[in-house]
Amino acid sequence: MRAVRTLSIAALVACSGTSTDDTAVDTDTVDTDTAVDRPFPELDPSACAVDGAEDALGFDASATFPSSGDLLADRLFPLLSMLDGLPEVTAAVAGDTPLGDQSAAMQAALAVAADCDGDFACVRAQLVLGEQDGFDVGTHLASLLGSSRGVLVPLMKETGLFFRWSEDAPGTLVNESWQLTWAGLVGAFDRFAGAVDAPTLDGLVDDAAAAAGADTAVWAPLAAVTIGAMHALGRDEAARYEPLAAGENAAAVARIAEMDWSAYRFAVILVPGQGPTDDQTALNPAGAARCDLAVARWEAGLAPFLLTSGGHVHPDATPYSEAIEMKRYLMETHGVPEDAILVDPYARHTTTNLRNLARTMLHLGMPAGMAALVTSDEIQSAYIAELLEPRCRRELGYVPWRSVVSLTPNDGCVRVSHQSLFVDPGDALDP
Question: For 265-283, what is each residue's pLDDT tens digit?
Fold first, then answer.
């Protein structure tokens, strides 16, 4: 068994390891006698006020879980990292007869897969469990580990990564999380292992076979081949900048613990990216224009931080991250200091711009109930205020905010939701 290494959620989603602060911060009241003397008086956070604090369902931003040793695997499939890395859990799985029988069968299948010479259909037939077998794994895991008295369920709740089921019975939390994880793993295998050439796939299978032992879990070979294929194809976007808190976001993270939030109307100003249409252009002029708007609000003291958001999106697999290029533009063109800029270099859609805003605030310990300002062009701002909610429900399965209100044609006020903590293994490029 490999050594257990503790991985903070900070290393996965730009976290600091500080606890989430749900304490109300009185930044919502605009003094009507002096509002006209304030810059941007129309940008009033009271417009998106909500009643009471949201239930965090056990979320603790300081929670840690065992790392697989591969940050991409941890980002995409945190449940597998926990199943493989918690000694109490691995011992229980190894001693379970149904799961042990499935593992033994996978050992034999893996040996056959090693003789497939990189033929994808042949490898898939051996490594991907049948639909019923895959379902049964979740049933056994729920029966074996679905207790609040064990180590797995409390940790799943503390990380927030399985938030969708945090209110459910422990067995349901484990089973539903497994079913979604397995479906995401199979989908990623089909997408990426199916895209590498035969020699590469053959090598990945051989490596998985060489690493397998008697206690290797039934899911481990498929996970190893899938993650290996993603690395081989350079599709590591979901973890490329980790650990963010010690890298691109280090300077800003250092300021957060001592921040006087009452001095600001908003916790942060989100600047959604606008990707160029070719892979030779680093920053779309429209993205620069959004930065110009946002920096004026930051200079006026509305928020202590700017958050640039956008991944390697347009065109697909472009070498440029929208967030990183906007950060560079803010520093070089406007002289914004690095400790005032946070980046989310992962978001691929407007839905995840807002979702990752929430994750950044919650994981970095910003006041959970404090408003954020979203500044963009008029078209995107109207889209966020009027049309984004149904798309979020359709694509994310939830709405990543408690309140969104348009303040001006370029600005919206947002109160984020803990729902955003939930990680979807089905989105391999930004889970």
Answer: 999 999 999 988 898 999 9
